[in-house]
Design goal:
355 residues; alpha+beta; Rossmann fold; 2 domains; 5-stranded antiparallel beta sheet; binds adenosine-5'-triphosphate
């Protein structure tokens, strides 16, 4: 188990990470998610040991590796890292690149050859052992980097946006690859991404960072359907955040709100009290019905459906998916099947609520 306790990292006046505590169970796939500059890479580099904590502590299986006056170097932490840039040696073959960490660790030739062979097999590159990185595609290079991480037998694999440089088709194939390797190897993966679809697809746990602080750490389904605050709600998934007024504190996890002249009942965050609230409404929770009068503002063709932005009577906007595109200005009757009520904060939703 990996445990971070009150970890902060400052660079002069910049607070890159602010009092982050979290635990990662053995065999988990934790996605670190958040907007650019929120501290994801810093957190990964602190775990790897490439950076020192300013305060707080990091422990692997009860052994403290970073803390006040203590900094265990990366090579003694039993972690392996996969970088966005692949970081392969251009003058070495694929096999030599993968063997490199083993030769540094003094592993014998015979065992090295066996382990390199297994790692090549695991990532589907058995036929390319003698190639140089320059003669590989981006996806193949990333597989080499992945094999070099796997070959080390480190129980924790740290991945820093490994798919960011790949085109959309390769990303999908490599997503499958990461998922399969996680399942087959039983290792713990900590995976930095700013792509929420990637995080939701791969992770057993998601940690969302916002300006250096941990906003939420939960299963992907929980982060999606019950975001802890408005920054998580805005960052993960599609949908609109609308202003409403809760009529009373929630009871049994539900609350009645006043919204655009109606009083629907929605699921509610435990921190909600009576008064102004925000409501996250996902497009799949909105359908044609007769609860809310609305008017079509715009549509975007998405292949399998059209994403329609519609304006409610009070001027707030919702999104929904429809099989065909109504013309702008068309009157629509809508129903909202589901909403997630978040306490109102100083931070107000985007103008009009839609994204
Ligand atoms: N070596 C450094 N010196 C000064 N500031 C730094 C340093 N490294 C990171 N920072 C700052 O710390 C904050 C967090 O950076 P970090 O790279 O961890 O964010 P990130 O979430 O990984 O962003 P991105 O998705 O853009 O890679 C940023 O404000 C960044 O400018």
């Amino acid at each position: 188990m990996l445990e971070l306790s009150h970890v902060s990292r400052r660079y002069d006046a910049v607070v890159a990470l602010d009092d982050v505590s979290l635990t990662v169970a053995d065999g988990a796939f934790l996605a670190l998610l958040g907007p650019s500059g929120c501290g994801k890479t810093t957190l990964l580099r602190l775990i790897a040991g490439f950076e020192k904590v300013s305060s707080g502590a990091i422990a692997f299986n009860g052994r403290t590796v970073a803390g006040p006056g203590l900094h265990v170097p990366p090579e003694d932490r039993q972690v392996a890292m996969v970088f966005q840039s692949y970081a392969l040696w251009p003058h070495m073959s694929v096999a030599e690149n993968i063997a490199f960490p083993l030769s540094v660790a003094g592993v014998r030739q015979g065992e090295m050859a066996r382990r390199v062979g297994e790692a090549l097999e695991a990532v589907g590159l058995a036929g390319l052992a003698a190639r140089r990185p320059e003669a590989l595609s981006g996806g193949q290079r990333q597989r080499v980097a992945l094999a070099r991480a796997l070959v080390q037998d480190a129980p924790v694999i740290l991945c820093d946006e490994p798919l960011a440089n790949l085109d959309i088709h390769l990303r999908a194939a490599m997503l499958e690859e990461f998922r399969r390797l996680h399942r087959d190897t039983g290792r713990t993966f900590i995976y930095v991404t700013h792509d929420q679809a990637e995080a939701l697809a791969l992770a057993t746990d998601v940690a969302v960072l916002d300006r250096g602080r941990l906003s939420q750490r939960a299963a992907p389904e929980v982060v999606y359907s019950e975001p802890a605050n408005i920054s998580v709600a805005k960052f993960v998934g599609e949908g609109a955040i609308v202003d409403a007024v809760a009529e009373a504190p929630p009871a049994g996890g539900k609350v009645r709100v006043r919204l655009a002249g109606r009083t629907p009942v929605f699921r509610a965050h435990a921190g909600v009290s009576a008064g102004p609230v925000h409501v996250l409404v996902r497009p799949e929770a909105v359908g044609i019905g007769n609860a809310f009068e609305a008017r079509v503002l715009s549509t975007i063709y998405k292949g399998a459906f059209h994403t329609v932005t519609a304006e409610l009577a009070d001027g707030q906007r919702l999104q929904l998916h429809l099989p065909s595109a109504p013309a702008p200005g068309t009157a629509l009757g809508l129903t909202i099947h589901d909403g997630w009520v978040i306490p109102a904060t100083a931070e107000s939703p985007a103008a009009g609520g839609g994204r």
